[in-house]
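Let us work through a complete example step by step.
Step 1: write down the sequence.
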Amino acid sequence: MAVTPSADEEAELESSKAPLLEHLVELRNRLVYSMIAFFICFIGCYFVATPIYTFLTQPLADAMATRPDAKMIFTAVYEAFFTNVKVGMFGALCLAFPFMAFQLWMFIAPGLYRHERAAFVPFLLATPIMFVVGGAFVYYFVLPTAIQFFLGFETPGGNGTLPIELQARVGEYLSFVMTLIFAFGFCFELPVLLVLLGRVGIVSSQGLASARRYAIVGVVAIAAIVTPPDVFSQVALSVPMVALYEVSIWLVRLIERGRAKREAAEAAAARNIQTT
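Step 2: predict the structure and record it as tokens.
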């Protein structure tokens, strides 16, 4: 059930209205601030691209630690340079994301009721946390397991057959890792989104539970789209997302119980006032 705004909130929202041109100017300013923050972070991350790339390649280095001749290659003259550029953009997006989210909040906050802003702020803070959780999950669990799985397809050769061994390209490996990190990071925002919608009364725990089978199909489809084209990565993303969906149902149910208790207490207080 959606929360009904009070008369004071209606008046506050009415006083914050502005002409369309002012909204467009405000949006432009917020976008400019976000781009400036991204550019500054990109410059800083580009000059430390090597340590960042070393960190991203550590799961592969650990998996191939028993090979004294293990190495990575690049097959185009410009590949190493553009890999550093992509590393800088990756780091810049991660660093600038909280600031960019804050700029988005500053743009939409005047158009929300007071109770909607109060409901939104905790979830605004939870957004980067859940993104980091998703990125850490893929880096420390999914990547090592996936790399070991793919290395299992190497063959030593012999008896007239050529050996098959991994010679990872720097650009391809970086794209693989970045795709997984962003896919898991953004998909781990699912509880934040659903609980926020439940907090403002747009969705209910009963509705989420009844749509579970459709949600599972949607999760599998999203995992197939945002992850690299291999079954392991898709399953590794689908299972946590289904679990997070179930957690979201439980959290929304807790919110509904708390709301019901508050409404019952307010109704009881109103009856006591009427009887006195």
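Step 3: interpret the result. The chain has ten helices and no strands.
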